[in-house]
Structures are given as structure tokens and as C-alpha cells.
Amino acid sequence: MIYQTTQGEEVPALGLGTFDLKGEVGRKAVAHALELGYRHIDTAESYYNEEAVGQGIQQATIPREDIFLTTKVGYDKLAPKDVRRSTEESLRKLQTDYIDLLLVHWPNDNIPLEETLDAFAVLREEGKTRHIGVSNFPPALLQRALDHAEILCNQVEYHPFLGQDDLLALCQEHDLLLTAYSPIAQGKVVDNDTLQEIGEAHGKSPTQVTLRWLIQQDNVAAIPRTSSAEHRAANFDIFDFSLNGDEMDRIADLAQGKRLVDPEIAPAW
Fold it and tell me: What range does the domain containing 146 cover?
């Protein structure tokens, strides 16, 4: 496992995303990932699977302190009283006393960001979460958050077809973690000629090359989501090779501003 050290916190650079992994599928996915060696699990209140994630963690019997667990407070629950209620419900469902990283899932212009971050900070002071952060924040909004609170992370869509140069530079400047969701572009990387060619040189798949490209960047972690046990194992098999500078640049040059996750509530980028 490779770790990204951010503000003194060692975060496993590769995690399991759990969007839409519910019930038995979610429980088995989390337990299997932990048995494979994953130590970073990502969920959210709005995924409606925190109970399954908690059950998977319990089944795997990995010491809780060895797992970096992230959850998120939903867009419509960012008022201070709702932040507390949502977080305490998440803790109950996850069967844990604390979250490692609590994120604002999507920014909400109708609720002052500063009030939300203050509520998050109180939960951190109480030990209900070890760190706080944001998700889906463009650079200007991330700077606003940084001006008000001590945060660890911004989780955003990031893959070879969607560059995040400005955001990543800001994260690196402030020693923040950038966690990449949809890191393999919802499977679209497998058909790319450049990624196939680089993969052939290393005996790896385009998916493995993409994940390696992400975690080889300073301050970047990736959380691929898959319901397939075979794919979870393959995604984890990226620690026995590295990409050279030319290969890293060739992959970065694939960026074309292709955003795959763009709901109505998304902020303007």
C-alpha cells in the first residue's frame, strides 16, 4: 500500500468507493476489500449503504484504527442542527465511535458554508470525526473554505479525461488531499489507445495504469468503485510498478474536460 501524507495524516492512497453498493452486495464488497488489503473505505449518507458498510467492516475483523473511513453529509443536511443529526446517525449505522474524515458532500448556496464548517469543527472537537473536508468544491469555493476552517481534503471527479490542474495545485499548496472519485471514468479508460499502450509496456491493464497515474501524483488518492471481486483485486494490484515521467505526461495530455458527474446541484466550474 502507498500512503499520501497530508498534514501529518497518512491516508491510504487507494480506497474503495461504495456508491450504489447496497445491502449484501455492499457488505460483501467492503469485507472483501479489507481482506485484500484495502484500508480506505468511502461512503456517504446519501448512498443509503452505511449500514452495509458498517457490517462489512465488522465482518472483516480488521482493527478499526487501521481503517481510514470517510462519510459525507448530504446537500440538504448542511444546516448546523442537521449536520449533527446526520453525523450521529452515520456513526450508528457504521457501528463506529468516530469517522476519520467527514465531508460536505455537495456545496449548498442556500446554507452559509461557514456555518456548516463550524458545525463540522465542533464534531471534530468532540471526537466524532478526526478530520473534516469538502467534496465537489471548485478552486474558488475551496479557497473560501480554507479561509475559514482547517480542512484535510477535497473529493472531486478526477480521471485522465478530466484534468484538475488548478485544483490540484491549490491542494498541494495547502497540503490538502485531493481524493479522486470516478477515477477510471466509469470504465471508459479501458478503450483508450494511449492507456492500452502504456499498460502493455508494464503488463498492466488501462484501469491499473490509470489508478497508478493518480496515486503517483502528490496529494492524490483514488477510490474506484466496483461490485466485482475480480476488479477489486485487480485495482489493488498497482503497487508493483511505476510510471515514468513521459508516461505520466502522456496520460495527463488526455484531459478534455469530460465531466461525467454533473447533477443539477453541482456548482459552476
Answer: 8-187+219-226
Does residue 41 sit in helix, strand or coil? strand
Q: What local confidence, expressed as pLDDT, does residue 174 receive?
A: 98
Q: Are 211 and 17 contacting, i.e. CB atoms less than 8 angstroms apart?
A: no
Euclidean distance between CA atoms 23 and 257, whole angstroms: 34
Amino acid 258: pLDDT: 84
Active site residue 3: no
Nearest Cα neighbor of 210 from 202, 29, 120, 108 is 202
Q: What are residue 103's DSSP bridge partners?
A: 72, 133
Please state the domain count of the chain: 1
Phi, psi of 174 (to 5 degrees): -105, 10
Which of the residues in the chain have pLDDT under 50?
none
Q: What is the CATH number of the domain that holds 28?
A: 3.20.20.100
> Among the options 47, 75, 158, 181, which is catalytic?
47
Q: Which amino acid is at 236?
A: F
Is there a domain that residue 67 lies in?
Answer: yes
Q: Residue 75 domain-assigned?
A: yes
**What's the pLDDT at 266?**
96
Is residue 15, in this structure, part of any structural domain at all? yes
**Which among 162, 268, 136, 156 is positioned nearest to 219, based on CA atoms?**
156
Q: How far apart are CA 186 and CA 207, in angstroms?
A: 10
Q: Which three cell numbers stand for residue 145?
A: 473554505
The pLDDT score that the predictor gives to residue 77 is 98
4 vs 73, 152, 177, 178, CA distance in Å?
24, 12, 8, 10
Residue 6: per-residue pLDDT: 97
Quote the pLDDT of residue 64.
97
Examine residue 3 and state whether it is found in any structural domain, yes or no. Answer: no
C-alpha cell at 247: 508516461
Q: Rounded to two decimals, what is the model's pTM?
A: 0.98
